[in-house]
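Minutes, project check-in
Item: structure for the 191-residue chain
Input as provided by the requester:
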Amino acid sequence: MSDSEREPTVDNRAASRMPSGEPEPEAPAVAGETPEPEADELAKLREQAETYHKNWQRSAADFINYKKRIEHERSEQARFATVSTVINLLPIYDDLDRAVTNVDAHLAGLQWVQGVVNIQRKFASLVEAMGVTEISAAGEAFDPALHEAIAKQPGAEGKVLHVVQRGYKLGERVVRPAMVIVGEGEAASET
């Protein structure tokens, strides 16, 4: 290839600075400025923006309600699990309490008996730590929300005479009502 056949080398940087005979396209006065849309187009855009805003508000409210519902369901599940555990532990607690209460006087000083007493105390503190409280019943007025009458005997009417099985509450909720014997109003016969 000879020098005459080769295209001339053009420095584009220098060429861009040199004025040419072609008119340059008109640039907007301010960058990002667009011509104003027509009034009906502007109204449509505002309506669309308002619709998007309302949908966003609805979605935000739905999400807040969803979070509250999930939190409530989790607390209910935790409470249900606690109640279920307490219901299953109460018979064991009652058995330990009966065992400690009915220890023969001859056995009271033995180490294994003291071990059972210590286990019963730990169990009692565990049940208390779970928020379980005993329902007071002996001598109280019969309350069907707290007590379950299993028999009637002569005595003060509407009063709990004997507690057959203790009842318990978890917070304000009755886990197991107290099984009681209620007075029927007739004077107790003395023999």
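Outcome recorded: The chain has a mean pLDDT of 80.
No further action items on this chain.
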